[in-house]
Amino acid sequence: MAGKYDVAVIGGGPGGYSAAIRAAQLGGRVVLFEKENIGGTCLNVGCIPTKCLLEKAALIDKIRKNTENGMLKDAGLFSWKKIQEQKASVVKKLTSGVEGILRSYSIDTVKGKALLREPRTVEIEGTGEKYEADKIIIATGSKALIPKIKGAEKGNVIDSTEALGLKKIPISMAIIGGGVIGVEFASIYSTFGTNVTIIEMLPSIVATEDRDVVKGLTRELEKRNIRIVTGARVEEIKEGSGTKIVKYSKDNTISHIEAECVMAAVGRAPNLEGIDVEKLGIEMDSKMNIKVNSMMETTAKGIFAVGDVTGGYQLAHSAYAEAEVAAENCMGGKLEANLETMPRCIYSLPQLAAVGLTEDNAKEKGIEFEKSIFPYAANGKALAADEPGGFVKVICEKYSGKLLGVHIVGSYATELISSATVAINMGAAAEDFYRMIFPHPTLSELIKESVLSVKNLAIHIPKGQRTDK
Amino acid sequence: MATKIIMPSGGQTTNESLIVKWHKKVGDEVKRGDVLFEIETDKAALEVESYAEGYLLAVKYNEGEYVSAGEVVAYVGALGEKLEDGLTGAEAEEDEYQPIMKKEDATHIGKTSGVSGPAVTSENTSENTSENNYPSKILASPAARYLARKNNISLEDVAKNSPAQPIKRIDIENYIKGRKEQPVEEFYFIDTSNMRRVIARRMAESVSVAPHFTVTMEIDMTEAIKLRQILNEDLKNQNIKVSYNDIIMKCVSKAIEEHPIINSTYFEDRIKVYKNVNFGLAVAIKGGLVVPVVREVNKKSISGIARKNAENINKARDGKLQPSDMSGGTITLSNLGMYGVDSFTAIINQPESCILAAASIVEKPVIVGGEIVVKPMMNITASFDHRVIDGAEGAAFMKDVKKYLEKPQLLLM
Known about the structure:
The complex is a heterodimer.
Chain A: E1 3-10, H1 14-25, E2 30-34, H2 40-45, H3 47-68, E3 77-79, H4 80-104, E4 108-111, E5 114-118, E6 121-124, E7 130-138, E8 142-144, H5 160-164, E9 172-176, H6 180-191, E10 195-199, H7 211-223, E11 227-229, E12 233-239, E13 244-250, E14 253-259, E15 261-264, E16 268-270, H8 277-280, E17 303-305, H9 316-330, E18 344-346, E19 351-356, H10 359-364, E20 369-375, H11 380-384, E21 390-397, E22 403-410, H12 413-425, H13 445-454
Parallel strand pairs in A: 1-2, 1-7, 2-4, 7-17, 9-10, 9-15, 10-11
Antiparallel strand pairs in A: 5-6, 6-7, 8-16, 12-13, 13-14, 18-19, 19-22, 20-21, 21-22
Helix pairs in contact in A: 1-9, 3-4, 3-6
Chain B: E1 3-6, E2 16-22, E3 29-30, E4 35-40, E5 45-49, E6 54-59, E7 66-68, E8 72-77, E9 97-99, H1 122-132, H2 142-150, H3 155-161, H4 169-181, H5 194-209, E10 212-220, H6 222-235, H7 244-258, E11 264-267, E12 270-273, E13 279-281, E14 283-285, E15 288-290, E16 293-294, H8 302-318, H9 323-326, E17 331-335, E18 354-368, E19 371-385, H10 391-406
Helix pairs in contact in B: 2-4, 7-8, 7-10
């Protein structure tokens, strides 16, 4: 026996490391197992590196715009290699930062593939070392799904991890799947000069979000030369002459798209390697995600699961929230996770961010509501920053004025959403915003004015001009 | 140590191949299997893949140059490496910077992945039109202006055709007349591929050097069909499927034993007769056709021929045929049976002397012993090079081809 612990955490991604830290903060002796890199998908091949590329893409976009309008004489040159190097150094800084925090809490980090076959014992593959723990938290994350399409083998189709590290900017790219990942990569590569086509099976991209903001996002992406084909099913991927040919059907007709590179962004599947769910009696849902209750416990007593492996939102911040609940419950707490006001962010160009109910959600729930749409073009800071595209959509309960949903498409949407998240979380109503002061000039005023505009009380918009009708 | 990239041996009549296009630049990373360059041999257009890995260090021959087989064309190795014949290799590049303003043509999206041209800003283009072309203010007489306006003609278009100014009424009248005489062009151009150009050149060459004549035979395929069924039943477990092409090739090769002159080339006023029958099969692929060869058909069993043909066809469809797979043919078979063709003639694949054109097998009424019976019949038309083969010789050969196809048991003799 290599050691005895209060809590063993399998997986060092956002769910795993935050669970480990919280358990240690509560006085637990904690061991964390990681088979590759601390930080998991998020830090190594997900949120963080994509944002490095998107930040650079946004900069390039700005330079291009200002060269076109004549403010800059020359746009100059950029280096893809340097961008990749900076991305790698940010990842390194963050992962070693997390490693440092884990050390500061005296959490033992074990490098190796963990095998969980017995309720209280984790074994390391290869060495056979065994670790005993009272409670176990599974945070093994997910892996990119390769679609079941003829010809979609490795090498023919790249996943998001490979798309992050392309040696060269491709001339053209077809992205299968118009979800969050597909849209973000479309923004990245189209800005760096790639001709991008998104092929989505559903009638619209990011179909779970509010229709109006999705329509706004689609329009903005198309303005940036991204071709979006919706309602299209990819039938086959064939080898062209130095290219790939994507065959798809739409409205009963077959079409082809030729591209240098094809990326699959059709979703992620739970990573259950090394976890003997049957033997442990862990129940799975229909999509083979681990089933958990509101306390993040699985059907096997003493075993918890958090993050992507449980399906759900598959967001780093939902993993954080779940991990903190699981860790507290491992240390004797009785917390329930509240994931109702989950902010959702898409770091495309422009960004999309949303929290709370969409208009369709509200209708389905039979809630009587009022709504408003307030444009970025009516905000001083947005104009000063040369970012007049986009809008904020607000949905309030008619009877009480309670804020139900805020949806933003436009510059810095992902930063703006937090004030709306706080408001919704605290059950704020539109009138709570009347006397709240927002600094001027900021984009954050958009939140206040969009909420006030539900009641026709926004200042910076002509009388009667409510664009929701 | 850098690896030498050598020109493969391509054709049969010449030893030289033309470098049509380089797919890699000096300094580019090269992986095993990457296409380095395209060549055109007397047979076909081919892509030459790299068998080495590293960077393209130096290129000895450029596009448009002819290179003999076996010559070193390029070097692949590590950056900064010394090369043996005094060439300097590509230096390890610090970094590759690219222009931010690189603008892609919107129509290009998702269509093809050609290399984009240099960035052109809108300012540049507008300058060009105003400075380099005819002056924007066009001088014209009032009558000319009136006539142009009445007929909805732009003075710019007239000025393009007759640069002498001021434009007079007569110029407009001539322009209208000319416009009426000019028929509307109801066609469009397709850019040809290398393969297309090779086919065009070789077919024209064949018809001009070899006087063709053709002989058609109608063949009762009853026994050949039976033979194929028996063979396929027996070969079921070996994953080989015998096609009619394989049986035709074997029968033709057997007939050649009695008519060796068929398997020959007219070469500098002599006739070169080959001892082995190397049978080419015309395979249609996207954008053209290729003719992979099954060697020594005379020494192979039908199943051996079938295996090789299947392999060749797969390679052809995948674009993986090597020059060696297509060289050395002595006779060719073209089969359009699958299209329901009654009969057709083929153009001889130079420098061979004979090509056989097999049509579809159709059930037809035939008179046997005074009675009408239904039999599966197939037409084969042979095209011969009259410089080598005369009518009687060709006909006698085809009679034997018919004999073996109708009584394949004779193949055992």
